[in-house]
Amino acid sequence: MAQAIEEWYKQMPVITRSYLTAVVVTTVGCSLDIISPYKLYLNPLLVVKHYQFWRLVTNFLYFRKMDLDFMFHMFFLARYCKLLEENSFRGRTADFFYMLLFGATVLTGIVLLGGMIPYLSESFAKIIFLSNSLTFMMVYVWSKQNPFIHMSFLGLFTFTAAYLPWVLLGFSVLVGASAWVDLLGMIAGHAYYFLEDVYPRMTDRRPLKTPSFIKALFADEHVVVARPGNVRFAPPPAEDVLQG
Q1: What CATH superfamily classification does 2-240 receive?
Q2: Is 209 left (phi over 0), alpha (psi -120 to 50) or beta?
Q3: Which residues cross the membrane (predicted)?
């Protein structure tokens, strides 16, 4: 069993493995009182006035207490982060890293701006960790790139992947979780999808071209894939949301 888990871990692509490791180490460290969550959460005043810039990163690494909700999000993080990096971003590690950086920046900007809007500031002030939202963004991007995959939710009903974010949003509401967290991830995911996939087809311009200094950080493999057209939109076999 331990060997199988080790092999599974080693076979993960680099970004997925690094992010998942950082998340698990951070969350376990907080659960054991080795790390204080108060040193990690997003606090604009502490970032600006006390130069605690690490909070812009660490708020994406903590998933609150280790319970069923934590396991639920770890499943989606490991699954859809891995699927994106191995398929849509295969051989494009720098582009995948830039997607996550873009998503984290959009989410942070929304929370900071939302905190300045009357009547909404109180709701946004409660969002101090954006790890769940970043995970949801990856789910949203994957669903947009693979809309025809047939899925089932807990074996109760079937749907296509295009509706996966909405199904998960409805599930979050049913279990009493905040809809804001998932909605933020959907907003960030749609912003990336529009600027990366839709806008370039409309204008022949690509505003989210990965900067050269980020490409220099990663030695991407050159992958040649022979395929007619865009096969991301061809309907593959059905799969289960939670069983994969």
Answers
A1: Rhomboid-like (1.20.1540.10)
A2: beta
A3: 96-117, 123-141, 148-168, 174-195
